[in-house]
Amino acid sequence: MFSAIQTGSKQGMQTMDQCLKALIIDHIISVHHAREKVRQADDFN
Question: For a FRET experiment, which of 7, 37, 38, 44 has its CA 20 to 30 Å from that of 28?
């Protein structure tokens, strides 16, 4: 399922990690809160 979502990004699909990164960039959530929910925590350093 994870790879299907990544492949579907052209149609607007995104993974939870991608969504969390966008929320961090937009200053809606903190990195600390995002790390509690991410699939791959190493991407959030």
Answer: 7
Domain count, the chain: 1
Q: Which two tokens stand for residue 9?
A: 């990004």
Name the one residue in this structure whose structure tokens are 């699939």. Answer: 39
The predicted-structure confidence for 1-45, as pLDDT tens digits, reads as follows 567 666 666 777 888 888 999 999 999 999 999 988 888 777 777
Q: Say how far apart CA 4 and CA 30 lie, in whole Å.
A: 27
Q: Please tell me the distance from the alpha carbon of residue 41 to that of residue 17, in angstroms, as a whole number.
A: 9
Identity of residue 13 = M
Domain range holding 26?
A: 2-44
